[in-house]
Design goal:
- It is a single chain.
- With about 325 residues, this protein is mostly beta strands.
- It has a domain of about 160 residues.
- Helices cover about 5% and strands about 45% of the residues.
- The chain is built from one helix and 32 strands.
- Strand 29 and strand 30 form a beta hairpin.
- The longest helix has 17 residues.
- The radius of gyration is 19 Å and the shape is globular.
Length: about 325
Amino acid sequence: MMKKLLLIAITALFIILTSTACGLDDNLRWGYIDKEGNMVIEPKYNLAYPFTEGLAPVWLGYMDFGRWGFIDKNGEIAIDYNYYKTRGFYNGLAPVRIGEEGKGTWNYINHDGEVVIETKYTDATVFTEGLAPVLVNDKWGYIGTDGNIVIEAKFDIANIFSQGLAPIRMGSEQSGKWGYINKKGEVVITPQFGYAGTFNEDLAPIKKSNSTIADDWGFIDMNGNIVIEPVYKMVNGFNEGLASVQAEDGKWGFIDKTGKIVIEPQFYMSGSFSEGLCPVNVGDEYNPKWGFIDKTGKMVIEARFVNAMSFSENLAPVCVEVK
């Protein structure tokens, strides 16, 4: 369940980075809705992520002057705005950065905001399956929950473990290749892809080449075999049996695990399904209209938001215009 929530959070970050600068505008703020579409936590945050383990990371302030803290489901501040960056709670711990980009270091805090793992690393992400990727002198490795290195820092990029495997990249962004390691640090799927995502529901999204213009996203199984042909402009990972895919015309739709289209490409942008619902944008870049569909493709929460992320723990972050 926690890995599923992390995959949702990654998709949410993709939505933020590729959509409007919600919250950086004086008139736009993030809040949280329930599954009836009611705003239950007031939209007052410059950025807000989904809830995990009863807490959600929220950001107040602009650019380098902002800080991250954590709220509970009543919208009350649970951990104060002390952090330059965070990636949320998973398995009882949240990585947080104290200090500016390139200067600060990452620690891990518990639900009370207490530092339980103090590190010297300049980047770090969440624990899954007992391991967390960390950046050590420009290379990525993995630490255990005691903070000690378990897998040597020798990768140019490393992602989280899921279903016993973690995607890693060897080489530069332009020419390096992605493959997968096991929890011993052994390469089990040879680096060969332009990009490789985490496994969920036994499938992982991959991009076949390093080309920035090729439409060659598809899916592999846990042996590294391509099982859904790499013919899409972009894809998100599988959740609840469905994955969103971007067709040749730029529209997003949904496929099942056989590769069959089950919701026709029709959306300007899409997130991932969670708790039976998925955020989709039926507007465009300049006039975004986000709402939520069910697994039949029916809009069940009106498309009235400037931005939106997936539901987690019965709440979803949404961005709206405020006066």
